[in-house]
Amino acid sequence: MYDTRTAGASFRRRLLAWYGRSARDLPWRRTRDPYAVLVSEVMLQQTQVVRVLGAYSAFLRRFPTLRALGGASLGDVLREWSGLGYNRRARDLHRAARACPTGLPRTAAELDALPGVGAYTAGAVACFAHDDPVAFADTNIRRVLGRAFLGRTAAEREALELDAALMPRRDAARWHHALMDLGATICVARSPRCADCPIRASCRFRGGEDRPRRRQAPFVESDRYLRGAIVRALTLGPRTVAFLGTSLGDARVPRLVAALRTEGLIEQSEGRLRLPG
Ligand code: SF4
């Protein structure tokens, strides 16, 4: 078991002092607008920070408010999202905007109840927009807290317990940003830079090994890549399934087109596929 009471104060002090010196300057950290925070959190869920940087600003220029997003067609939202992948995220963001045209709800519990907004995103928005002390854990937070207190990456439930026990009641946003930055820049998944780590003295993992990760198939061979390519092709105009199958040169196209239609991400009329109007 872990002891957060004894080690917690020192961990917090060292982590936050390091963050004061090393914080990443990211545009979504300069706003408390819950809508802008929600956009950034949804984009960051499965996309690297460097790719989100440009997309975030462009998306907010095109849809500067929740009302503007809710008033747009799903097709226009998907066109703007094109290139980020995981288009279901754009559909869910659009649904959430339409579900609350007068503004996002205030608390994590209310945010969690919105269509397509999960517990992680709800907690992150409540914390980063309102500084609510809500526990939540992405992969970086699970890795840092788990390695430091358990000697391995934590399961989600373990990370939430650790986060709730360790989080300062004030300035919870700064705390979570610090954990995320440490996980993204020092306590990385492979070859963590323990010699540069501010919490190395008390870390239970230092010098250890996480369970080896399963080898993933190359991205360009994945269904996810091909789904994105189908949506990208349709941003140029309506196409038939046969045309897409030939131009993308992949036998999975009909199956993935069917899945995208079921999910409401594309439509078919008069024998042609198109983005939703
Ligand atoms: S000492 Fe190493 S394993 Fe422990 S938190 Fe720091 S970087 Fe991660």
Entry summary:
The chain is mostly helical and 277 residues long. Helix content is 56%, strand content 2%.
Tell me about this structure:
The protein is an all-alpha fold. The chain has 2 domains: 1-213, Endonuclease III, domain 1; 219-274, Arc Repressor Mutant, subunit A. The protein contains 14 helices and 2 strands, in the order ααααααααααααααββ. A two-stranded antiparallel sheet has the order 1-2. Helix 1 (4-22) packs across helix 11 (172-185), helix 2 (34-44) crosses helix 3 (49-62) and helix 2 (34-44) crosses helix 8 (119-130). The mean pLDDT is 92.
Question: Which features does this protein show?
Answer:
14 helices; 56% helix; 277 residues; 2% strand; binds iron/sulfur cluster; mainly alpha; Endonuclease III, domain 1; 2 strands; Arc Repressor Mutant, subunit A; two-stranded antiparallel sheet
